[in-house]
Amino acid sequence: MSQTGNLGADIESQINDALSRLASKQMFQSDWDIAAFVIFFTFIGIILLLIILVLIRCCCCCCCDCEGSGPRYQKAAGTKSGVDNLAMEP
Fold this sequence. Notes:
Oligomer: single chain
Number of strands: 0
Order of helices and strands: HH
């Protein structure tokens, strides 16, 4: 029971600390705060960029049907593809 009360007091003190920073308009009180902010938003930016790239890839392939059209992607039955590795020959 004392753990729960202590946890509640810790959360309340952190909330009060954040609110006091907002009130004083000094969100970043140390270099560590600035570094954490930069790392966090860099991570969020990379995630958003990857999501946008996936959406562009999905939309591009759905709209223009780039795979499967043309002789480059059509394979005849029984034909070999690739390069023979002569070093594997006995």
